[in-house]
């Protein structure tokens, strides 16, 4: 039986994680925790909020797991740093794979990895520690996703791709097969990646142009 857990964070990502954990996994969330400098209220969603600096006193790691609910800030370094700090306190980092995701039978989730609904994880995919896959992505066969990555929604990662650690991939981005994506990449919404990328590369998709004709003058809509 899974142990109760504490969620680091009390923003929107933490609220979403709380919903999935309680509604999909029937996990008991005992509390939220944040750095003391950001502790403004003592409760959130009906649960206590405690400072991270002393969280182990009230919710000791021998009895509670922890999940780090931080987005892709600082190219995922903020989430990576807090996951390392929680592990150093002795917490076992939880993970969640939505029962509404399609995941191959040999897949093994790593600590602090969170996979939401309608993700397709094809055979022989490996996903590292502290990775977030928002809803509705396709991760092709034999692909490897490094630690501390964040993949937004409706991303297509084709087969046999290597994604370097701490990379962010935005909504509707497409990565062709048999390429290597460097570490700390930022691949923006709707970007199309057709070859290998260097470390710390940034790619933006093309934004739609604003028409000079206002909607009030359109004849066919």
Blueprint (SSEs and pairs):
Blueprint: E1 5-8, H1 12-23, E2 29-34, E3 43-44, E4 47-51, H2 55-58, E5 65-68, H3 77-88, E6 96-97, E7 102-103, E8 114-115, E9 120-121, E10 126-127, E11 132-133, E12 138-139, E13 144-145, E14 150-151, E15 156-157, E16 162-163, E17 168-169, E18 174-175, E19 180-181, E20 186-187, E21 192-193, E22 202-203
Parallel strand pairs: 1-2, 1-5, 2-4, 6-8, 7-9, 8-11, 9-12, 10-13, 11-14, 12-15, 13-16, 14-17, 15-18, 16-19, 17-20, 18-21, 20-22
Antiparallel strand pairs: 3-4
What structural class should be given to the helix and strand makeup? alpha/beta
Largest sheet: 7 strands, parallel
Radius of gyration: 19 Å
* Sheet with the most strands: spatial strand order: 6-8-11-14-17-20-22
SSE run? EHEEEHEHEEEEEEEEEEEEEEEEE
Helical coverage, percent range:
10-25%
| CA distance, first residue to last residue | 56 Å
Task: Compute the average pLDDT.
Answer: 97
Q: Which fold name is given in CATH as the topology of the largest domain?
A: UDP N-Acetylglucosamine Acyltransferase, domain 1
CATH class of the largest domain: Mainly Beta
CATH architecture of the largest domain: 3 Solenoid
Number of E-state strands: 22
CATH homologous superfamily title of the largest domain: Hexapeptide repeat proteins
Indicate how many domains the architecture comprises.
2
Low-confidence stretches: none
Strand residue percentage: 15-25%
Query: Number of helix segments?
Result: 3
Report the principal-axis shape.
globular
């Amino acid at each position: 039986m899974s142990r109760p857990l504490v969620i680091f964070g009390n923003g929107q990502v933490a609220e979403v994680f709380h919903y999935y954990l309680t509604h999909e996994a029937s996990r008991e969330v005992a509390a939220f925790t944040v750095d003391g400098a950001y502790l403004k209220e003592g409760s959130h969603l009906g649960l206590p909020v405690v400072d991270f600096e002393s969280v182990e006193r009230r919710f000791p790691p021998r009895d509670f797991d922890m999940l780090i609910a931080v987005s892709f800030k600082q190219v995922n370094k903020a989430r990576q740093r807090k996951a390392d700090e929680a592990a150093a306190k002795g917490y076992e980092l939880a993970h969640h794979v939505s029962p509404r995701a399609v995941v191959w039978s040999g897949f093994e989730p790593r600590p602090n990895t969170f996979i939401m609904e309608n993700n397709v994880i094809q055979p022989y995919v490996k996903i590292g520690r502290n990775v977030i896959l928002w809803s509705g992505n396709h991760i092709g066969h034999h692909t490897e996703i490094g630690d501390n990555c964040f993949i937004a929604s409706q991303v297509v990662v084709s087969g046999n791709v290597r994604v370097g650690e701490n990379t962010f991939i935005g909504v509707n981005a497409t990565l062709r097969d048999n390429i290597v994506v460097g570490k700390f990449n930022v691949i923006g919404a709707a970007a199309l990646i057709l070859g290998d990328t260097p470390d710390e590369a940034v790619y933006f998709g093309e934004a739609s142009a604003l028409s000079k004709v206002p909607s009030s003058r359109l004849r066919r809509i």
